[in-house]
Amino acid sequence: xxxxxxxxxxxxxxxxxxxxxxxxxxxxxxxxxxxxxxxxxxxxxxxxxxxxxxxxxxxxxxxxxxxxxxxxxxxxxxxxxxxxxxxxxxxxxxxxxxxxxxxxxxxxxxxxxxxxxxxxxxxxxxxxxxxxxxxxxxxxxxxxxxxxxxxxxxxxxxxxxxxxxxxxxxxxxxxxxxxxxxxxxxxxxxxxxxxxxxxxx
Length: 201
Prior knowledge:
Order of helices and strands: EEEEEHEHEHEEEEHEH
Helix content: 25-40%
Number of helices: 5
Largest sheet: 7 strands, mixed
Strand content: 25-35%
Shape: elongated
Strand order of the largest sheet: 3-7-9-8-10-11-12
């Protein structure tokens, strides 16, 4: 598994989970390749620091790794597999996760499952979308993560494969938290009252 570093105040720190925030820059060191991942809202300073740090890592190996810049939303499959699957979240939430605050304080987050041609879980992206009924799409699967519960919302027109993958992704979340949460499958039009309240339905 690749090492993932988050750029913070001109320096870098290794992180354990592949959580990428839109307002930041990351360096992913896969040994024979180094990627600089740029969030859509990252600053010029962070971009510069990412390039500088990747150059240092490259020089440590006398220029053997290939260095490549990756923009948010343009991640190649090789990148996703190297990090073991990835979640793209907004800046504030990612900072909270990285600081390891009391997880009960984390807000409910909704992800759209992205990756129509995925072959493994590592090919799939979890892209954060606004927590609202307006974000739902009958063609897709969404994960609504309340920390203690993960709702797997299945659109009427989503594929069987997407439903299966949604469940596997929810179990992956559960494994990261040592089995503290409940997984609830929900079909479009059959949302429980608690979920309707969360989504403003």
